[in-house]
């Protein structure tokens, strides 16, 4: 499914208070989810004209807010093989923020501008591509739980009423608020992976195996993050499609190496 976003009226009541990191060797992370603002192979794409100057200014306004996190390192959803070219282009943008891009994505529009404002010197990609068939339950003779599988995927959002509202009415600010709420991140894991466990042949685990591929991709991306030379003096801003943000949130919650800051400390009106 790879849902990019659906609107939701954010409720920050369950957000953790920022933890005082004085004396801690944990690495602070702002783990931020977005929709893909340029070309994407995702099955569900958010309508967004990345070449519209007003839209670009709206993104830069978000970047200005997030820059208050003061990151030293920027992480984006690009493959590590592109790190040299990303770093070079980012430095060009820092020297000339008026430079233009033919088809800018969230990397050029948000990550570069946030990094420029905060003075971050380093930017890395950690993506890892893997094949993944989220329609597996429609392509096999599902003998596991076809009634429930079909009910859910006919209209997934009907099972998540608090986020089932008209997304077209939301501003960019509200869309991004939605995408970084726990309830929406939970939905992305459910719809992209966990619900596939309801699909399989009589003696097979086809749905569960496809879900495992998506977990594996995200774990490999997390492994790429851990290959980077980071220490407790760093403050790391991670910008990815929100389904990856959801998995990283769960990985980091149990990882003593990292401490996630409250996104809504910075993403606010």
Question: What integer value in Å does the Rg equal?
Answer: 19 Å
Q: Categorize the overall geometry.
A: globular
Major β-sheet annotation: 5 strands, parallel
Please, how many helices?
9
Strand proportion: 5-15%
Biggest sheet, strands in spatial order?
3-2-4-1-5
**Average pLDDT over all residues:** 89
Query: End-to-end distance, in Å?
Result: 30 Å
Which structural class is indicated by helix and strand composition? Answer: alpha/beta
Q: Which regions contain 5 or more consecutive residues with pLDDT less than 50?
A: 4-10, 12-22, 39-43
Q: Total domains, how many?
A: 1
Strand segment count:
5
Pfam family, one: DUF5694
InterPro entries: DUF5694
Region (Disordered): 1-23
